[in-house]
Design goal:
Length: 264
């Protein structure tokens, strides 16, 4: 029996979505239809869907994203929000008669985003965010008075909150900077969850094999129709484990044409 022992948590999430997704503009996807041919499919579907939701609930670093990537993403938010705050301070300074609250907001930005802070190291940015966080609340009234044409951050107060939160997240991630979380999620307790998911997939494959042996009415390519995309993800995972270069994106699932229609 073909196994899925090399699949990462990210691989499993992609594969489970393909296996369990019932959305379609015309008909049920072939994997869902094929799975429904065997007895007990609903039990396995419930088990796998529960595991999928648990995997999705894991923080990004537990799902196997490199810390360096996470740090870069969070730093990008910190730098962008710092720039927004600084630009709005500059605009207020150009106004002929800014309101008292607008002037207070501009002064608040000077505290929040001192000149050059977004060009500093992750550690310096994180330290700054931790330093100003206790005093953030007192700036709310002034910053909230400056509206922005944005649904996510409707005013400077929302930008300031996200700015500080990003800095605090840099501090949390920076505590383990230089490490790369194992792609299989063996830290943070994610490893057992990954193991249970793979074990359930193996149990389902064994169940399908027994059904094929017992029932001649089932299509002989049933295994491939159900597990074809997961098999392709496993093949790519084995290549990565052997040192092969990982492709930029996983292969697009093609439910109408199973990757491996040959039963195992």
């Amino acid at each position: 029996m073909k196994l899925f022992n090399d699949l990462t948590i990210v691989d499993l999430l992609i594969g489970l979505f393909d296996l369990l997704d019932e959305s379609s503009t015309s008909d049920r996807p072939v994997r869902v239809t094929s799975l429904a041919l065997i007895d007990g499919d609903r039990i396995f579907r419930r088990q796998l869907d529960k595991l999928r939701r648990a995997l999705e609930a894991l923080p990004p670093e537990q799902r196997g994203l490199p810390l360096a990537t996470l740090l870069k993403q969070v730093d990008g938010t910190f730098d962008r929000d710092g720039k927004i705050l600084r630009l709005m301070q500059e605009i207020i300074g150009l106004l002929g008669k800014p309101t008292a609250l607008a002037k207070a907001a501009a002064e608040s930005v000077e505290v929040l985003v001192p000149f050059g802070i977004t060009k500093q190291s992750y550690a310096a940015e994180a330290h700054h965010a931790k330093t100003i966080a206790p005093d953030l609340a007192r700036l709310e009234s002034a910053l909230a008075a400056v509206a922005l044409p944005d649904e996510e951050v409707p005013n400077l107060w929302a930008v300031a909150q996200r700015f500080v939160a990003s800095g605090e997240e840099l501090d949390r991630l920076g505590s383990t900077r230089g490490e790369t979380v194992a792609a299989r999620g063996d830290r943070f307790g994610a490893g057992p969850l990954r193991g249970r998911t793979i074990g359930t997939l193996h149990a389902l494959r064994e169940h399908v094999a027994r059904a094929l042996e017992a029932r001649e009415d089932l299509p002989r390519d049933l295994d491939g129709k159900i597990f074809g995309y997961l098999d392709e993800l496993q093949r790519l995972a084995q290549g990565r484990a052997a040192g092969a270069e990982r492709p930029a994106d996983p292969p697009a699932p093609s439910p109408a044409s199973p990757v491996n229609p040959t039963p195992s």
